[in-house]
Design a protein that fits this description.
The structure holds two protein chains of two kinds.
Chain A: H1 2-5, H2 15-39, E1 48-55, H3 62-81, E2 89-96, H4 101-114, E3 119-122, H5 126-139, E4 143-145, E5 161-163, H6 169-183, E6 189-194, H7 201-210, E7 218-222, H8 230-239, E8 243-247, H9 250-262, E9 268-271, H10 278-284, E10 292-295, H11 308-321, H12 327-346, H13 352-359, E11 387-392, E12 396-399, E13 403-405, E14 409-411
Parallel strand pairs in A: 1-2, 1-3, 3-4, 4-5, 6-7, 6-8, 8-9, 9-10
Antiparallel strand pairs in A: 10-11, 11-12, 13-14
Helix pairs in contact in A: 3-11, 3-12, 4-5, 6-7, 9-10, 12-13
Chain B: H1 2-32, H2 39-55, H3 61-84, H4 92-114, E1 131-133, E2 136-138, H5 140-162, H6 164-174, H7 176-181, H8 186-208, H9 223-233, H10 238-258, H11 264-278
Antiparallel strand pairs in B: 1-2
Helix pairs in contact in B: 1-5, 1-6, 1-8, 1-9, 1-10, 2-3, 2-4, 2-8, 3-8, 5-6, 6-8, 9-10, 10-11
The chains are: A alpha/beta, B mainly alpha.
């Protein structure tokens, strides 16, 4: 059998055969080594890296997924045109969480097992993202969350999960309470918000108020897709809060503001980031004038970009997709920048462990889109500070002066 | 006490939305024996048609209203001719499934054509500043809806009660076979019913759009409340639908205002179940001789 594959002039056991065997063996070892060095790391090939974009492409918050996808896609396209990262181009594969935990798990499984992605990026609905965490812990795949507001992604610390997106629920609550009490000098604070994961902010708000020995004067909730909030608004009106926290999505916030106006309820509305969009001002018109909102893009406004990175992002996004992007697209673009920086720092011999280690070396990393990003071994939440904006006539947003930083609290000049 | 009366007035205002939607459900059921589960999507189509007339064609609110009625009437006739007539003798399950499927198709089409964005819809009267009646506030849009829904209810009631075509519609609903034998053109009756229903849903869509946070492919969800109102009032009674709508709105407001806003839906639906246990035909409904 051996003779079938050996040249006739080679005598088995001879010197030539020995050299031939050594060369072949060397080649085989090299090939195995090269092959395994890529195949051992799922999603990493010689010239490509597969990234799984898991986000909400359909369901009640399906509008969000397109923005998240296009934000990251734009950055990776730019990056690929410039030669990629460490010589490898990014291939982004999208999975839909449909805003439910079960779909998030099945789509993430597909991305990990069938598509063999190297890392995950994105996120959308908090309920879906939080539902994915046990699977991420089990598989050890890195996940960079660039949108969700849930603190449960990083509290307690999950070794492979990094979060630098929207204002975290616990931070948002502290910030809103501090602003209401210290900046707006409110003595009476009310609340109206949706039930479910997004409304989980209420428990943090109540905790935050305890710090000032205060309690909400009225707590009102509603379910999706309620279209009548008048009973809640009348109760709020009777309690007469100076500041009312509005934990709602755009459409229901529009109903609340409109009905508040119809029922003669006047207050300073303070909204979460879900309403801090251009869409909110478009849908509510003059009803939103005066509304104060949490802001997660540092000191950048998409309608008035200042940093070169933000100007570049807005210009290229408008050229490619034909409309003015807002904070969701920008956060996703920034997420792609930070993840790429991690991949770059992890070096040519990319592994998931190296990526995690590299991300943990980021200190005050400037994205030019968000506030600077810092991760450490013990802290996987990256945003260094937040601001608030207020809606002015003509659908303009203006920054309020104070900043709020995790661990430092409210900073008023 | 002021709060109590304001809760009642606000309940009547939101109940008027439910009443308008309930009227559509009852009309279709009364005339064709069909439970139309795409009613919400027809409301959405009416609202988008009105919005297109106002923003793209730059028509005034009331001109847009009239154009939308014409468009919607034609859509209703087309729906009946293409989809409904061929399944009219099928089992109730098939009819329900077809209307559910059509609703999903319309919603998906809307999402693909106009996206998931929510658009602000103008009020009928300027900026809808509330009117003060002592300590109680009510908006012109709410008064407009209350008046229109009561007016439509009265017109439909008279139409069914006193006109030949209305009587023919009722006869068709009771027995299509007998109606045909009596010389009634049942095909025409079906088309007319769907055209009237589309006029009604378009009217509803345009009037409620500013009150439900703007127009979007998902705005038809409000039809669930209209359906509940129709059941509460009695599915065969037009005045019952209107009363059911107002009652549902007031019950919602009072339970939200005096018990708990989080449990508002639970309380309202428990009341609905209790009401149906004691009066299965609804408040104004009559016992049907047939079982489906």
């Amino acid at each position: 059998m051996v003779h079938l594959f050996c040249p006739k002039n080679i005598i088995i056991g001879g010197r030539k055969m020995k050299i031939f065997r050594i060369v072949i063996l060397g080649l085989v070892i090299c090939l195995i080594f090269i092959g395994t060095s890529y195949s051992q790391v799922p999603g990493v090939a010689k010239d490509t890296i597969k990234i799984g974009m898991i986000t909400t492409m359909s369901g009640p918050a399906g509008w969000m997924g397109k923005m998240i996808k296009t934000g990251a896609e734009l950055y990776f396209d730019e990056l690929n045109q410039a030669g990629g990262v460490n010589g490898r181009k990014i291939v982004m594969i999208t999975g839909d969480d449909e805003c439910t935990a079960s779909k998030a798990i099945s789509s993430t499984k597909r991305l990990i097992e069938r598509n063999q992605v190297f890392t995950l990026l994105g996120g959308g609905c908090s309920v879906a993202v939080v539902g994915m965490i046990p699977l991420i812990d089990e598989t050890g795949i890195p996940f960079y969350s660039s949108i969700s507001a849930s603190e449960r992604l990083v509290v307690p610390l999950h070794k492979t999960v990094f979060h630098a997106g929207n204002v975290r629920f616990d931070h948002a609550s502290e910030f809103m309470v501090d602003m209401a009490v210290k900046f707006f000098k409110a003595k009476k604070i009310g609340y109206i918000g949706i039930t479910g994961e997004y409304g989980a902010v209420l428990k943090f708000l109540e905790k935050g108020l305890n710090k000032y020995q205060m309690k909400m004067v009225s707590v009102e909730t509603y379910n999706l897709p309620d279209t009548d909030m008048s009973s809640q608004i009348l109760k709020l009106k009777a309690a007469d809060p100076e500041v009312t926290i509005l934990q709602s999505y755009v459409k229901d916030a529009a109903i609340i503001l409109r009905q508040a106006k119809d029922l003669g309820f006047k207050t300073l509305w303070m909204g979460g980031t879900a309403v801090a969009t251009g869409d909110f001002m478009k849908v509510t018109g003059n009803d939103s004038v005066g509304v104060v909102m949490l802001w997660s893009l540092g000191e950048e406004l998409p309608e008035n970009p200042r940093s070169p990175q933000m100007v570049n992002f807005i210009t290229k996004y408008k050229n490619k997709y034909g409309y003015q992007p807002d904070f969701v697209e920008a956060l996703s673009y920034a997420g792609a920048i930070v993840l790429t920086e991690g991949i770059k720092r992890a070096g040519k011999d990319l592994t998931r462990e190296k990526l995690i280690g590299a991300l943990e070396t980021l200190r005050e990393f400037p994205t030019g889109i968000t506030a600077p990003i810092t991760f450490t071994k013990d802290n996987h939440f990256g945003i260094s500070y937040y601001k608030m904006v207020q809606v002015k006539p003509g659908s303009r947003r203006e920054f309020l002066e104070p900043k709020w930083a995790p661990g430092k609290g409210l900073v008023i000049k | 006490m002021d709060l109590f009366f304001q809760q009642i007035i606000s309940g009547i205002a939101s109940g008027s939305l439910y009443a308008l939607i309930a009227l559509g459900f009852t009309l279709i059921y009364k005339a064709t024996d069909i439970l139309n589960f795409m009613q919400g999507e027809l409301i959405m189509i009416g609202a988008y048609a009105g919005f297109t007339c106002i923003t793209l064609l730059k028509l005034s609110y009331f001109s847009a209203f009239l154009v939308t009625l014409v468009i919607s009437g034609l859509i209703g006739i087309m729906l009946e001719r293409i989809f409904i007539r061929s399944i009219i003798r099928s089992s109730i399950t098939i009819i329900i499934m077809v209307t559910v499927a059509l609703g999903i198709i319309f919603r998906s089409m809307a999402r693909n054509i106009v996206g998931d964005d929510v658009y602000r819809f103008p009020y009928a009267f300027g900026n809808n500043e509330p009117i003060h009646l002592g300590y109680i506030l009510i908006t012109p849009q709410s008064i407009f809806i209350i008046v229109i829904s009561v007016l439509i209810m009265s017109l439909l009631y008279s139409f069914f009660k006193f006109t030949r075509i209305g009587k023919a519609m009722r006869a068709t609903q009771q027995s299509q076979k007998t109606a045909k034998l009596m010389g009634i053109n049942t095909g025409f009756i079906y088309s007319l019913t769907w055209a009237i229903n589309s006029l009604l849903t378009a009217t509803t869509g345009i009037m409620i759009a500013p009150l439900v946070g703007g127009i979007s492919p998902e705005m038809g969800w409000v039809a669930v409340k209209g359906f509940t109102a129709a059941i509460l009032g009695g599915f065969t009674s037009l005045p019952g639908s209107v009363v059911g709508g107002f009652l549902l709105g007031v019950l919602e407001n009072l339970s939200g205002g005096y018990i708990s806003s989080s449990f508002k839906d639970i309380i309202v639906f428990l009341i609905l179940i209790a009401a149906l246990v004691f009066k299965p035909t609804g408040l104004f409904g009559k016992k049907s001789g047939r079982k489906v």
